[in-house]
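Practice problem 4.
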């Protein structure tokens, strides 16, 4: 074989291998996902837990990160909840919030939000109780309902408000806080 034919053959082999390499790599990854010990079977490779539904979908499917997902804290419509869902607390709200979801003559301020509203520090430093303490000086018959849930977006806040809104009547104020 002359050098020109060898060069053409080398180019064809290189082009075919370059074209088929991604196909074989994709096949390798897809097949390895079937095995529990696969290095590709980790949700952080496909999304971040704080900003991606893909992370949680894969975590639920692969059951590798499910320690973070407590089944009793997943509401079928709203997604995550503040606490466990029980017969007496079907929305998984904080007990003090659930008990104040009623028309009792007090003005209601509904404080909805994500994890920054929900608070991860001591309850004394949560935004809703601090807001209530400031407003209660002027309006003694006032309840600020703490409805912050980590990971919530405005769509879930709207659903939460629609879900229990009729229980409180017409709220005096609705505050939505999101920090993305």
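Answer key:
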């Amino acid at each position: 074989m002359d050098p020109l034919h060898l060069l053409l053959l080398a180019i064809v082999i290189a082009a075919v291998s370059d074209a088929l390499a991604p196909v074989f790599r994709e096949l390798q990854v897809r097949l390895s996902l079937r095995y529990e010990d696969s290095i590709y079977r980790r949700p952080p490779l496909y999304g971040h837990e704080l900003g991606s539904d893909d992370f949680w979908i894969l975590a639920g499917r692969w059951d590798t990160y499910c320690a973070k997902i407590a089944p009793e804290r997943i509401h079928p419509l709203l997604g995550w909840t503040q606490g466990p869902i029980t017969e007496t607390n079907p929305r998984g709200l904080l007990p003090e919030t659930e008990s104040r979801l009623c028309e009792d003559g007090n003005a209601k301020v509904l404080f909805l939000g994500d994890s920054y509203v929900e608070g991860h520090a001591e309850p004394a430093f949560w935004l809703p109780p601090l807001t209530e303490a400031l407003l209660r000086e002027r309006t003694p018959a006032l309840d600020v309902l703490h409805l912050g849930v980590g990971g919530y977006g405005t769509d879930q806040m709207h659903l939460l408000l629609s879900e229990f809104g009729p229980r409180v009547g017409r709220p005096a104020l609705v505050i939505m806080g999101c920090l993305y």
